[in-house]
């Protein structure tokens, strides 16, 4: 089973590594913090506990802080 990941203008197919695979698991694999990333699944904003299923499209957007 696989899903599509889009991050930093790069799109790639990734394999789902376990039966219950969440956005949080993905962020941990990529060494990213949910405090600086907004996650979208199939075009909808989701929380880090959201499960990723076969065929899903995940888009990670980095939050930019400034003043």
TrEMBL record:
Domain of life: Archaea
Protein name: ThiS family protein
Species in which this protein is naturally found: Methanobrevibacter oralis
């Amino acid at each position: 089973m696989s899903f599509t990941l889009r991050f930093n203008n790069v799109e790639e197919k990734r394999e789902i590594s376990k039966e219950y695979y969440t956005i949080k698991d993905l962020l941990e694999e990529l060494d990213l913090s949910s405090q600086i990333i907004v996650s979208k699944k199939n075009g909808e904003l989701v929380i880090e506990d959201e499960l990723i299923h076969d065929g899903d499209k995940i888009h990670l957007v980095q939050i930019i802080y400034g003043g």
